[in-house]
């Protein structure tokens, strides 16, 4: 299996992964809108034997510093719990760090995302509609940026609420 950047010809297969991995097509629509709005910064696919089996996207967050939001991450149901999602997330975070993004945010299951270094305490100083125990941040560079202020996810996320 390889992890690589999304290519234009991958979009149909990515949509199929998203629709298989989530109970509704909302996340597939989110990805389409993030692309259309120009808010996608990192979009990676996991490819095994020529087929796309997973996808992760990081989009720009409005903040006083360079920040990204991790969402969504999806793996075909038949391939879940095999490390593909973790590999996609780690690859995306490595690229974000290399590209000098300062913080990454995620809204998700704390025990899962803590494995990658995300921490609810690091996000607790930020004002966001998503603030709460499932809202986490990960520092990608040192020194740390300011750990308070307002952050706003790309407008496409509002359609999921």
TrEMBL record:
Gene3D superfamilies: 3.40.630.30. Residues 1-145 form the N-acetyltransferase domain. This is N-acetyltransferase. The lineage of its organism: Bacteria, Pseudomonadati, Pseudomonadota, Alphaproteobacteria, Hyphomicrobiales. InterPro entries: Acyl_CoA_acyltransferase, GNAT_dom. Coiled coil: none annotated. GO terms for molecular function: acyltransferase activity, transferring groups other than amino-acyl groups.
């Amino acid at each position: 299996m390889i992890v690589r950047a999304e290519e234009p010809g991958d979009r149909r297969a990515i949509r199929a992964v998203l629709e298989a991995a989530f109970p509704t097509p909302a996340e597939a629509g989110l990805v389409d809108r993030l692309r259309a709005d120009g808010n996608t910064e990192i979009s990676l696919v996991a490819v095994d034997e020529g087929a796309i089996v997973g996808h992760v996207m990081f989009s720009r967050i409005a903040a006083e510093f360079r920040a990204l939001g991790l969402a969504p991450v999806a793996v075909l149901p038949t391939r879940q719990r095999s490390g593909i999602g973790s590999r996609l997330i780690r690859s995306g975070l490595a690229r974000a760090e290399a590209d000098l993004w300062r913080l990454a945010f995620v809204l998700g299951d704390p025990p899962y995302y803590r494995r990658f270094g995300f921490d609810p305490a690091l996000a607790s100083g930020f004002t966001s509609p998503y603030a709460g125990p499932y809202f986490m941040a990960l520092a990608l560079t040192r020194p740390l940026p300011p750990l308070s202020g307002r952050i706003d996810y790309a407008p496409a996320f509002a359609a999921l609420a």
